[in-house]
Amino acid sequence: MGIMKTDETVLDEKAIVAAAESALADIATVRKEVAKVIFGQDDVVENTLVAVLSGGHALLVGVPGLAKTKLVTTLGTVLGLNANRIQFTPDLMPSDILGSEVMDQDENGRRSFRFVRGPIFGQLLMADEINRASPRTQSALLQSMQEYHITIAGERHDLPSPFHVLATQNPLEQEGTYPLPEAQLDRFLLQVDVGYPELEAERQILLNTTGLSEATPDGVINAARLIEIQKLIRQMPVGETVVDAILALVRSARPGHGNEATDKNVAWGPGPRAGQAMMLCARARALYQGRLAPSLDDIHALAEPVLQHRMALTFAARAEGMTVRDVIAGLVRQAKG
């Protein structure tokens, strides 16, 4: 009986390796298609795809005009997902996102309510300039991002599967922006900072996007295949040292846990969701880079996108010109020893 059990385990491992190798090939093709349209920005593409492969949502932060919207529409095409886009504005109402009930009247004059679905009922929701809407409207996304359903007039409506929110946000210094509530920020698996392109990438952008025609990406996988890859990522083994490194890093970012720099500079730190995000994203990043198991390098690379939107600095640290990124970089240096 004991031998049979061992055989099953070995078979399972073989099956996972075979499935992972097939997923590696698909992910490599996805990367190639995205690269046809998005030049440079390798870290941005990697982190956004890692968030989707992990089954989560991503917040893309950067000034306008850096191809954030284009990246999301490209991912919709390449991953074969039904994509909807909502432009967030100060006058946007929750019903503009979720949908609303309208009254119908039949030929006998009987009236009844019918639910008309809003744009949230898509597999890939692009929430464009999410921080331009009021907090009330932003919070309409909260339940859907966590529970994958919404409730209207006491009735539950399930969202399609898979369901991913890729939100873009302008830097808070810009006019007409509201900061996102902490509870909502925590729902995003990763915060991806979108910077200006490198010189060579910008040269490519100029040459390739100002002619008569632009390259268009092809669909590589579909929603069912994406769900398979997401399930596979949750089955990938994570070594004990990597688990310990995740716990040590997340806990070192919380004040009152023995880290002197954190106690001095951090007002509040990341909760357990940060560790969960790190655990999933490390597996997805390994697969994205062609490896079958996550390493300590994955943890160090993911520290900033996983932690930066889940912690806040003290007033004194901000007054000294310190940023959350500086604090995280210090914690990673300590972790590397």
UniProtKB/TrEMBL annotation:
<dbReference type="InterPro" id="IPR003593">
    <property type="entry name" value="AAA+_ATPase"/>
</dbReference>
<keyword id="KW-0547">Nucleotide-binding</keyword>
<dbReference type="InterPro" id="IPR011703">
    <property type="entry name" value="ATPase_AAA-3"/>
</dbReference>
<dbReference type="GO" id="GO:0005524">
    <property type="term" value="F:ATP binding"/>
</dbReference>
<dbReference type="Pfam" id="PF17863">
    <property type="entry name" value="AAA_lid_2"/>
</dbReference>
<keyword id="KW-0067">ATP-binding</keyword>
<feature type="domain" description="AAA+ ATPase">
    <location>
        <begin position="54"/>
        <end position="198"/>
    </location>
</feature>
<comment type="similarity">
    <text>Belongs to the MoxR family.</text>
</comment>
<dbReference type="GO" id="GO:0016887">
    <property type="term" value="F:ATP hydrolysis activity"/>
</dbReference>
<dbReference type="InterPro" id="IPR050764">
    <property type="entry name" value="CbbQ/NirQ/NorQ/GpvN"/>
</dbReference>
<dbReference type="InterPro" id="IPR041628">
    <property type="entry name" value="ChlI/MoxR_AAA_lid"/>
</dbReference>
<dbReference type="InterPro" id="IPR027417">
    <property type="entry name" value="P-loop_NTPase"/>
</dbReference>
<protein>
    <submittedName>
        <fullName>MoxR family ATPase</fullName>
    </submittedName>
</protein>
<dbReference type="Pfam" id="PF07726">
    <property type="entry name" value="AAA_3"/>
</dbReference>
